[in-house]
Amino acid sequence: MLLPDKLPRVGTTIFTVMSQLATETGALNLSQGFPGFDCDPALTALVDEHMRAGRNQYAPMTGVPVLRERLAQKTAEQYGVSYDPDTEVTIVSGATEAIFAAVTAVVQPGDEVIVFEPAYDSYVPTIDLNGGIPVYITLTPPDYAVDWSVVEEAITDRTRLIMVNTPHNPTGRCWTRDDLDQLARLVQDRNIWLVSDEVYEHILFDGRTHQSLMTHPVLRDRTFVVGSFGKTFHITGWKIGYCLASAPLTAAFRKIHQYVTFSTVTPMQYAIADYLAEPARYQQLPAFYQRKRDLFLAGIANSRFRSTPAEGSFFQCVAYDAITDEPDYDLAIRLTKEIGVASIPTSVFYHQQNDYHILRFCFAKTDDVIQEAAERLSKL
């Protein structure tokens, strides 16, 4: 019997490879994007409270009402955009599930989907599984800015969806208001939907403001906005995310979601709802992570690495062309084994493995790990 392969181009993800290698070698793991510190004890105490209160059975498919209501309230206060908690807010098992459900809801076989690369690795496999055709817009260093004339040329009558990610993984670039205006100009008279991956919405630096697609009048009703409590509250292992979308889009989204995970862990939803009652808990994130970014950059300032400070996310890209001309994948493996610092080669985020001699480091780690990693890198 021959097993059909629906994803013949996909193997083990680079995140699994590098994290496993870091574990085997005892390296400092600045590769996979997860915090190297625990969440607020007050949040885990709330989970315990709701578990003991007996909230341990299936949650509603759409998410527990109080969490949807709190999220809608937070969104209105932060962005001035109203979503109906009953018909436009859905709690899911991680942002990756939300991306899968959103793409599946609108992409039919033969539809074209525009993807800005370097791109997070779940986007294209999801498009492939739905019979879509990825159309790549390649962003290049050092600024990774979008050339909107190139995007306009890429749009055809078969374009059905555009994937957006801001703040961006892996580059740390943040979209501007002009980017939103340019996107709106291109889609306003076309039957094109948008998936906006905004999981790092609270992690922006140097006074920047997050430009969510929901805040643009042309984009709001055609966009699935994807968010992550895991990234915001240092609880990536809980796998709790959400999708904000207009009622028609949410109805289509929920048809898929109900057959993927149906519902998300119940007591943790209640705990997050309670935790959201104090906005300071997420409003302090820009300063918290900017200090860590700056600590890492200061640590490699006298090294032979070159970098442009990340505008957002908890990733910093660094160029190593002054050190060696070896491929980024080979260097990432070598640095993990030889100096004990694991990173991600950015070529893996391009469909043709474009190698610009750049590595991505995650600085969502404790200060001692950041400083030790920077010290080891500076010796190269």
Q: Could you please describe the fold and organization of this structure?
A:
The chain has 380 residues and is of the alpha/beta class. It folds into 2 domains: 14-32 and 284-378, Aspartate Aminotransferase, domain 1; 55-279, 3-Layer(aba) Sandwich (Aspartate Aminotransferase, domain 2), CATH 3.40.640. Helices cover 38% and strands 14% of the residues. The strands form 3 sheets. It has a 7-stranded mixed beta sheet with strand order 2-8-7-6-5-3-4, with helices on both faces. Strands 9-12-11 form a 3-stranded antiparallel beta sheet. Helix 5 (123-129) links the parallel strand 3 (112-117) and strand 4 (133-138). Helix 3 runs parallel beside helix 10 and helix 12 runs parallel beside helix 14 (367-378). The radius of gyration is 21 Å and the shape is globular. The mean pLDDT is 97.
Write the SSE topology.
Blueprint: H1 14-25, E1 28-29, H2 41-52, H3 65-79, E2 89-92, H4 95-106, E3 112-117, H5 123-129, E4 133-138, H6 148-154, E5 159-165, H7 177-187, E6 193-197, E7 223-228, H8 229-232, E8 241-244, H9 247-257, H10 266-275, H11 280-283, H12 285-299, E9 315-319, H13 328-338, E10 341-342, E11 344-345, E12 358-362, H14 367-378
Parallel strand pairs: 1-10, 3-4, 3-5, 5-6, 6-7
Antiparallel strand pairs: 2-8, 7-8, 9-12, 11-12
Helix pairs in contact: 1-13, 2-10, 3-10, 4-9, 12-14
Domain Aminotransferase class I/classII large: 28-377
Cofactor: pyridoxal 5'-phosphate
EC number: 2.6.1.88
Name the structural class: alpha/beta
Return the domain count.
2
How far apart are the first and last residues' alpha carbons, in Å? 51 Å
Q: Spatial order of the strands in the main sheet? A: 2-8-7-6-5-3-4
CATH superfamily of the largest domain, by name, is Type I PLP-dependent aspartate aminotransferase-like (Major domain)
CATH fold-level label of the largest domain: Aspartate Aminotransferase, domain 2
CATH architecture of the largest domain: 3-Layer(aba) Sandwich
